[in-house]
Amino acid sequence: MELEIKKLTPDLVEQYLHFFDATPHDTNRDEDKCYCAYWSSANSSGKDFSNALSRRNIAKQYVQEGHIQGYLAFLNGEIVGWCNTNTKKNCVNCEGWKYLATFVENEDNNLKGKSIFCFVVKPELRRQKIATKLLMKIIEDAKQEGYDYLEAYPYVETLGFASDFGGYVSMYQQFGFEIYANIDGKVVMRKYLK
Q1: How many structural domains are present in the chain?
Q2: Hey, which residues does 142 pair with through a beta bridge?
Q3: Backbone angles phi, psi at 30, to 5 degrees
Q4: CB-based contact 89:20 (threshold 8 Å)
Q5: CATH number of the domain encompassing residue 157
Q6: Which domain holds residue 130?
Q7: Which is more confident, 39 or 82?
Q8: DSSP notation for 132-172
Q9: Which of 69, 82, 119, 134 is most buried, by the most CB atoms less than 10 A from its CB?
Q10: ∠95-45-161 over CA atoms, to 5°?
C-alpha cells in the first residue's frame, strides 16, 4: 500500500470535509460526526458544537484559518486517514481540551510540546498501519520543527469504537513513547525528541 502523507492546508479543506462526510467515525451515526472540530488552536468559547452541521461549519472555518492542524493519508488520491496534531500550549482553550483538562498537566517548563489528539481511518483500511505511518510522519516533522516532545492521550483499554480515536498505547510504545501519567484508565504518553 503506497500512502502519501500530507499536512492539512487550507486548500485541502473540501477534501478534508468530504472525508468526514463519508467516513464512519465516532459512534457511526451521522448526527455524531465530529469533523475533528473539538481539537484546535481556536478558543471555542461561544461556539455551537451541538450538531454535525455546526461542527462541519466550524471545522471548515478552523481549517481555513489554520486552527485545525494535522496530517492526511492519501491512497490513490483519496483521503483514507487523518491525525489531528497541534502545538499543545495553543490548544488549551479548545472544546476538546475540556475533556483532558481534568487529567493533563499544562505546565511544560518552557518546553515546546506537540499534542496528538486523534486518528480517523476508513473502516475497511483499519489495522493496515495507516495510523502508524501518520505517527511516523508526525515524529519526523516534529523533530525538524524543533519540538521538545510529543504527547498523546490514548485509553489504556479499548472501550469501544468511539473511545479509540486517541490511538493505542502499544502503537505509541513501539515508537518510544512512555506513560507520563495514568489516571482512571486515561493515560498521557510522551516521547522526548531532544
Answers
A1: 1
A2: none
A3: -55, -40
A4: no
A5: 3.40.630.30
A6: 4-192
A7: 82
A8: HHHHHHHHHHHHHTT-SEEEE--BSS---GGGGGG-BHHHH
A9: 119
A10: 15
